[in-house]
Amino acid sequence: MYQAGWSRQEIGVSPRGYAMYGYGQPGHRALGQETPLYARAFFVQNAAGQALTFCCLDLGYVSYAMRSGAIERLRERMGAVFNDAAFVLTCTHTHSGPGGCSHDVMYNLVTPGFVPEHLEAVINATVDAVVAAWQSAAPTDLNLASGRFDEAVPVAWNRSLKAWNRNLDVTRYQEGENHKALERTMQVLSFSRDGQMHSLLSLFGVHATCLGNSLDRHDGDNKGYASAQVEQQLSDVDVDAVAIFAQGTAGDVSPHYHGPRQTARRNAIKGRAEYVYAAENGRYQSDMALNIAADPQQTPVNGGIDAIFTYVDFTAVHADPAMANGEPEAWTTDPCHGVSFFAGTPVDGHGVPPPLAAAMRIGARVVRNYRLGPLSGLSPEDRQYYQRLYSAQGPKDILMETGRKLVLGRTFDRLGLPDAADPLMAEMKRQAKAGAINESAMVPTVLPLQIVILGQIALVSCPGEFTTIAGRRLLKVVAERLRPRGIEQVLICTYCNDYMGYVTTNEEYQEQAYEGGHTMFGQWTLAAFQTGFVSLAEELLKPESERMHDRVTQPKPAPVAELMLRSSLPPRS
């Protein structure tokens, strides 16, 4: 039995016309609030005093600024009981929550800019939820169980079936069978006292995009509705019950139908109907979680608590050939966004118009051929750099060299693209000309890797969005390494501790659908994550005092002067 507690605290962000985070659309502005947005937290401690904290935010992403700000205050308020290596900060990935909470440039462009009040509200809610969970801790039984959605339950569809079918280790499906091409199993960790369940944590991957980009209200989307529904059900037992619906492998999984006539079916759900649809999707998840938690065959969770955490610079990771199809020179590179990223997804969120995307592809190939050709005029160093870059990025039509801050080979302030063609490009030009992004990182490149152990369970906490098979392959190699420690089940939670785009398999990457275009570090990104997590898993086999993982590396802070230039910019009218 553990000492465990839980709490939820509302995130006090007032809608004031800033664009919401998720769709990258400046017109997707928050003018009101449909549902409250919460920070929900669990605290668990064993008899030896080892403790972990898990906090899930009703937001689209987690940033280093959120995590580091929360850690600083939690250390002050909780003292030695707080272990930042065992602090998991994740989110539901609702696309209808506030933005402006990162010090990195790109994910704030749509807001526009950094909004300090938003970040402060998120940190306050996180800290208050974790502290209240710690203070409410009492003897609690933990149990783990899982259940599988029947294929008839319309809860999720694979949105990149052609990419899925490229994998060598999957059942291939036809259009119309997209609902089969995903992980339909949900895991539930339940918290019980005196034989009655008080709270739960669900892990199931599906995008929180039931609500589209034409709405104008903050909302928790399907995961938020699922949490509220379970908390209402449990309120007779515990008025302070907490239900966290966190994400698994959601990268290629949509809550909207994908298949024949997918556009017409999506267009039929508009306005208020989208909120109804989100609540229905949440109901499928909440009903499944409650059914799983009521299963008498649940597995009791007992034993020690442990955690390991490190930051890795993903711009130059040499992946283990065993994780990279035997490729001896499998490297990651500086981040790059492909044209398919800017083109968006066919149902969940359209991007630039198809004719513009086609022109971008032509431009990307012209730049690539010029740089790799004999007449480029590049220095030997730049020629070598681009040979490595294009080799690692593979078939991606690179529109934005996000590390070097170039679009089709031109600096942001010299873009010839008309401002009206893409508002985000226009905002990048404006900030570049103002001197706001000269030294600032566009996106996170020093990324957090974390494994938390609770009894016989290990939780792999990943930044960003993993596709179904990418997550499955990661879990397989980590489980193999942790088996000697007695770990019986390895789970995955995504969108943890920071946000850095997508992770596809190497085969999926070749398709260059949206997910591959947003796999910024190249075609060996998954292999790099597997290499890093396996290394951490091996350290977990050693006593804590003998572990040799990197505890020093941290993301580089944003230059304060530049951050101020892109802070508190007025919302667009």
How many discrete structural domains? 1
Judged by helices, strands and strand pairing, the structural class is alpha+beta
Question: Rough shape?
Answer: globular
The DSSP helix count reads 15
The rounded Rg comes to: 23 Å
Distance between the termini: 55 Å
Return the average pLDDT rounded to an integer: 96
Task: Note poorly predicted spans.
Answer: none
User: Biggest β-sheet: count, sense, barrel?
Assistant: 9 strands, mixed
Proportion of β residues? 15-25%
- How much helix is in the residues? 25-40%
DSSP strand tally: 25
Structure in words:
The protein is of the alpha+beta class. It has one domain (2-310, 445-546). It is 31% helix and 20% strand. It contains 15 helices and 25 strands. The protein has helices spanning 64-78, 116-135, 161-166, 221-234, 262-267, 272-293, 339-343, 354-372, 380-393, 423-433, 468-482, 506-511, 514-517, 525-539, 560-565, and strands at residues 2-10, 20-21, 32-33, 38-45, 51-57, 87-91, 97-98, 138-148, 157-158, 185-193, 196-203, 217-218, 243-246, 253-254, 299-300, 305-313, 337-338, 398-401, 406-407, 410-411, 446-454, 457-461, 465-466, 489-493, 502-503. Strands 1, 4, 5, 6, 8, 10, 11, 13 and 15 form a nine-stranded mixed sheet that branches. A four-stranded mixed sheet has the order 16-21-22-24, covered by helices on one side. The N and C termini lie far apart (55 Å).
